[in-house]
Design a protein that fits this description.
By secondary structure, the protein is mostly helical. The protein contains 13 helices and four strands. The model has no long low-confidence stretch (mean pLDDT 84).
C-alpha cells in the first residue's frame, strides 16, 4: 500500500485553471446524493481530511477514500470557516431544491397570487443559498440580512407581477418567460445585498501562497459579479427552453388529458436541466478568483508594491458560490 502521509488533500484533483477541470470538480461536489448523508458521516469525512492535513493518515486508508472524504468535505463544509453548512444552502441541494421551486414557478405563472407565493418561496431559498455560500470572512448582521431579503423579494415580486400584468395580451410563450425575468432581476439584487459587507469593507486577498495582503472592495465587486452571472446562467436553460417544450407538448391530446401531471412533469424536466447546469454554472469562473494588483485600490496597490516590489502581480480571493 502506498504511503499517503505526504498526500496533499487540498491540491485540486482536476486542473482548476480550465473549465473542464472545474466542471469535473463541481460535478463531484454538487452530487445531490451527498445531501442525503447523515451529519455523523460528514463529520467522519471532515476528521479524515483534517488528519490528512496534519500528516496522520489512518492505516489502511486508500487514496480513493481520501478523495471521497474530500468530496464530502467540500460539499458540506464552508471553505472559509470549516463549519458544516445548512443542508438547504449547500450546492449539493441545488438540484432537488431548485427543481421543485422552479418547476412550480413555471407551472403556476397565470395568476397573481400564485406568482407572488412562488417568487417569495424562491427568494427565500435564494437568500439562504447566498448567505450560506458567502465569503465568510466578511460578517453580516441580522439587520443587513433582513434588508437584503426584503429588497430581493420585493424586486422579484415587482418584476414578476408587473410583467405578468403587462404580458396579458402578449403571446402565451412570453408570459411563460416572466418567471425567468423575475429570477434574473432578483439575483442582481439578492446576491450583492446579501454580501454587502464584502462590497462595503472589502474582501481578504492573498498572494499565491495564501499570505494575506489586505482587503479589496474591487476584488469583492469582481467576485460577486461573477456569482450573479453564474446564478442567472444556472437558471436560464431550464426557465427559457422548458417553457418552449411545454407549450409544444400541451398541444398534444395526451397532454391535454393529463393536465394534473403538468406540474410534476415540469419539476422532473427542470431537474434534468439542473443536474448539468448547477456544475456548469459554478464552473464558469474559478472559485479561487484572481485580480491584477494594478486593478486594486490605489492604497492597497501601493502597500503591496512597497512590501513586495514587482514580485506580486496577482492577488487571490474566494469569490464564494
Amino acid at each position: 500500500m502506498m504511503d499517503l502521509s505526504s498526500f496533499d488533500i487540498d491540491a485540486p484533483r482536476w486542473d482548476q485553471s480550465t473549465f473542464m477541470g472545474r466542471l469535473k470538480h463541481f460535478f463531484n461536489i454538487t452530487d445531490c446524493t451527498t445531501a442525503l448523508l447523515p451529519d455523523s458521516r460528514l463529520d467522519e469525512a471532515k476528521a479524515l481530511v483534517e488528519s490528512c492535513r496534519a500528516g496522520s493518515v489512518p492505516p489502511g486508508t486508500t487514496e480513493e477514500k481520501l478523495y471521497y472524504a474530500k468530496k464530502l468535505y467540500d460539499s458540506a463544509f464552508h471553505p472559509d470557516t470549516g463549519d458544516r453548512m445548512n443542508i438547504i444552502g449547500r450546492m449539493s441541494f441545488q438540484v432537488p431544491g431548485g427543481m421543485a421551486i422552479t418547476g412550480c414557478m413555471l407551472q403556476f405563472y397565470r395568476t397573481v397570487p400564485a406568482v407572488v407565493f412562488w417568487q417569495w418561496v424562491n427568494q427565500s431559498f435564494n437568500a439562504l443559498v447566498n448567505y450560506t455560500n458567502r465569503n465568510a470572512a466578511s460578517p453580516i448582521t441580522p439587520k443587513q440580512i433582513g434588508v437584503a431579503y426584503f429588497t430581493a423579494t420585493s424586486t422579484a415580486l415587482a418584476t414578476a407581477v408587473g410583467l405578468n400584468l403587462y404580458t396579458k395580451k402578449a403571446p402565451p410563450l412570453v408570459a411563460r418567460w416572466v418567471p425567468f425575468a423575475a429570477v434574473a432581476a432578483a439575483n442582481c439584487v439578492n446576491i450583492p445585498m446579501m454580501r454587502q459587507q464584502e462590497i462595503l469593507n472589502g474582501i481578504a486577498v492573498t498572494d499565491e501562497n495564501g499570505n494575506k495582503l489586505g482587503h479589496s472592495k474591487k476584488a469583492a465587486t469582481k467576485g460577486i459579479t461573477q456569482v450573479v452571472i453564474s446564478r442567472i446562467t444556472m437558471a436560464a436553460p431550464g426557465m427559457i427552453i422548458l417553457p418552449i417544450i411545454m407549450q409544444r407538448l400541451e398541444k398534444y391530446k395526451f397532454m391535454q388529458r393529463i393536465t394534473y401531471l403538468h406540474g410534476p412533469i415540469q419539476v422532473m424536466l427542470v431537474g434534468v436541466f439542473l443536474v448539468f447546469m448547477v456544475p456548469a454554472a459554478c464552473s464558469l469562473f474559478p472559485q479561487r478568483c484572481s485580480i491584477a494588483v494594478s486593478k486594486l485600490e490605489p492604497d492597497l496597490r501601493d502597500s503591496i508594491r512597497s512590501r513586495y516590489g514587482g514580485s506580486v502581480q496577482q492577488v487571490y480571493f474566494n469569490k464564494g458560490l
